[in-house]
Amino acid sequence: MPLDLERYQKLLPDAPERLLASGEREQAHRHEIEQRLAALDESSMPKFYEGQRRGLRRAVEAARVLLARATSSTPRSTAAGLVWWVLGKAGGQYRVRST
């Protein structure tokens, strides 16, 4: 690197200082952008996660209502079959066994 700077200096006397100053400005700019992004994340991420939690709470409440209705109006065996059917439709990973 020093040999390269010497060659630049032969062509343009203040080239090494200009190159270093350019690198320092770029680094300062990069740090400023990273600080802005970090501040943006700090302000927006709690709102994002609150929305996620709200959606999860609504989904759990809807599941509770559906299960309460299913278990109150049908025999237990049918309610269990309904639960497995719903899980099978939603996730695709559960299979209802026929008895």
Distance between the termini: 78 Å
The gyration radius over C-alpha positions equals 32 Å
How many domain regions? 1
The helix/strand series, from N terminus to C terminus, equals: HHH
The major pleated sheet works out as: none
Class based on secondary structure composition and strand pairing:
mainly alpha
Return residue spans where pLDDT drops below 50 for at least 5 consecutive residues: none
Overall form: rod-shaped
Instruction: Give the rounded overall mean pLDDT.
Output: 78
Number of strands: 0
Q: Please count the helical segments.
A: 3
Helix content: over 70%
Strand content: under 5%
Can you characterise this structure?
With 99 residues, this protein is mainly α. It has one domain. It is built from 3 helices and no strands. The longest helix is centred in the middle third of the chain and has 59 residues, at 15-73.
Essential attributes:
99 residues, mainly alpha, 86% helix
Task: Compile the SSE list and pairings.
Layout: H1 2-11, H2 15-73, H3 76-91
Summary of the model, kept short:
The protein is rod-shaped.
